[in-house]
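Q: Okay, next protein. This is Complement C1q-like protein 2 from Anabarilius grahami. I've checked the sequence twice, so it should be correct. Can you predict the 3D structure?
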Amino acid sequence: MKALVCILLLLETFVFVVQQQVDGGLNENEISQQISSEDGRQNPPQTDTLRAEASTDRQQYCDLGIPDIHAALRELTATVTEQKEKNRELTATVTEQKENIRELTATITEQKENIRELTTTVTEQKGHIRELTATVTEQKEINRALEMQQTFILEELKKKNEDREIAFSASLMESGSGFIGPFTTHFTLTYRNVFTNIGNAYNPITGIFTAPLKGAYMFRVSVFGIGPTAASAAIFKNGEHVVITHDNQPKNDLNTSNGVVLILEVGDVVYMRESWNGMELENVGDNGALTHRRGTHWEIGIHRRQVDDVLSPNINILEELGEIKSMETKMKSLETEMERLRTENKDREIAFSASLVESGSGYIGPFTTHFPITYKNVFTNTGNAYNPITGIFTAPLKGAYMFRISVYGVGGTAVSVSIIKNGEIVVSAYDYQPQNVLNSSNGVVLILEAGDVVYVRLGSGRRIYDNKSNHSTFSGFLLFPLR
């Protein structure tokens, strides 16, 4: 019984101390004073004996190994103090976690907004991708059409360049020798011994050259005979006289030549005819060559569309764009080739041909000094490189040019002219007889830089003659440009 009372008293004291510690705590002295006060106030004298017995029993229990209450209280106080520190730390941790939770909540709210915006953006991008896919498909179709068109144009340009391969050269007889003429009327000459007939535009049966395409053509004729019957032949275009070559001596050989550059339409015809009644020709030659033509200028508008590289896990746009870029590269290559062919065609459009007088007839010269000749009757001046006022040809671009001169006169005074390049004599044409007809011709191929000038100069003390038959001529044309 005494032991039970001791244990109950101990438990009561323990509960009181814990309650005080929780409410704010009492120190060890306060706890002792509280216990003493309660002992004096609450316990009547009759309990003193019991309390003393309990104390004796407690001492006995303590002696038996039960811990001292004050030591237990001190240990409990230390534990409670430690627990309070942990509680403060835990409170701080909880406060910090609450702040973190508030920040995390704000972050989550922001991320939700970002997700909503991203969802909107993705939806918009999907729309763009659909539009881009449609654009890519359309662009591919356009590119294919343009590629087909450019390929066709390129083939046409190449074909037109191949169309330049038109040239012929022929002499009168295939075998033997002899004269043709004289006849009482004009007679079309047939040059049957064909040396060259590229493009088959010349017909050796009829003696007629038929232009297969529009262009500038160079024709030259050379005739040979024996005096005293004159030798004469003229170049005709569509039935109209253009230029003539003529020679006459009382005896010995006769020879003369002339030439002209003509602009022909498709189907135009050029042929040779004995121009005067009573003329006779021995085996002579005629030749012609396409030297230049006007090509139709093809223009092509290239529609280009700008596309953005958009990546999508479901739509492979990059491959399509790569194909478009490849096609654009190919089209640029085709454009470059077409531009080169256009430039080449345009660069070739340089040719001129002219005779001395526009009307009437007469001599030029003699003069006491060398004299520049102006050929005023212009047949052809493609590219306007020849100036009929000054008689000067000015090269518009670097290239190889062909020039020819033919002169005509009457004996007593020699005929002599020279082709001049930048003030220097290159070649001359000269003839002299004491009487009758004088004629001569010459030609040269010159490499000219842009701005170089070429003209014909009459020698001092010489003279030349011309009339509506156009005996004396000056012609030139670009063979090919040089880089």
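A: Here is a summary of the prediction. Confidence is low (pLDDT under 50) at residues 276-286, 288-315. The two ends are 134 Å apart (CA to CA).
Q: Noted. On to the next one.
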